[in-house]
Please model this.
Amino acid sequence: MTKRKKNAGDLAVFGGTPCFESMLHVGRPNIGNRQTLFARIDEALDRNRLTNNGPLMQELEKRFAGYLGVKHCIATCNATVALQITIRALGLQEKVIVPSFSFIATVHALEWLGIKAAFCDIDRKTHNIDPVQVERLITPDTTGIMGVHLWGRPCDIYELQKIADRHKIALILDASHAFGCSYNRKMIGRFGRAEVFSFHATKFINSFEGGAVATNDDDLAGKIRLMKDHGFSGMDNVVSVGTNGRMSEISAAMGLTSFESMDRIVQINKANYRKYAAGFESIPGITLHKYDETEKCNYQYITTLIDDRFPLERDELLKVLHEERVKVRRYFYPGCHRMEPYASMPEYIGLSLPETELVAERVLVFPTGTAIDDTVIERLFELLEFISRNGTAIKKRLLDSVD
Model:
């Protein structure tokens, strides 16, 4: 911190000096061992094998499948394509029930394939899809349920699977946030018909860009492998419609190297989480969304809810912190059902999802990862406590600046 702030005018939003010299980001990439990464890239270059089911990608699939305890892990160029291919391979049509409180790619994957999203509300306590609401949305044209393990916290897989089995529809799980997490002591990746992971640069382990599908279904795995490679089954033999969902060797090199650093990254995330948890105890109105530490967790998101006890509204706090170079995020505002093109579609106009909308208005996600340490977090809480103590004066100046 450059200097202690004595009054509201010292805040950067009012012309003062920012607390931090460089921007603190949510999801700043974690980098594994560079020498190991470069050695793998050199090997790929020496082999002149940069894609098309290369040895590094095959190694990644084998190691990830072993870690997850599944029969098949199919690497892809990104998680969105993985979702699209899996949805098509499952033969989903008509409507699929999906939470609105998720990254837009979850819903776009359905719309891209001509499938309508039946937007479902969430459980306020978990931020995950609410099985009670799922049951109410089932209609004769429902062909699937897509759950999302938001923030790496598993959704209620047991109840969702019961509903899917009862209605004889597919359960697919967007596990983009949940690599390295468990549900009832079993690794995420083993549930539903398939689970889809993201290894985007912002995830706690990454392959620059990348994704994967985990499944124990041999037939489904075979279809996905065909579809991600233009439908080729051997040389010059196309047997189905497909697309290019292949992971490159360079991405696989990064994914393997990142995977080998996973334990260290999780330890850092966990230490940061506990430091944040202790700090938020002394700031009324900012409540940490907690992990179940009896399960395996990756601790990659520091998610909070801002309520009326805090003197600033969520977006006011976001504005102040951004100017101090703390790039907090308001995921996943305002909910997919209020984003385009969905907000303008006749079937969604007037749709009310009260729990989704309440959480979307209050969520604020804080920086963590290997770029953050105890000193940074201590400085951040010094800033938050200052904002809390001087909230009335800060709010007045913010309102005056608008006028």
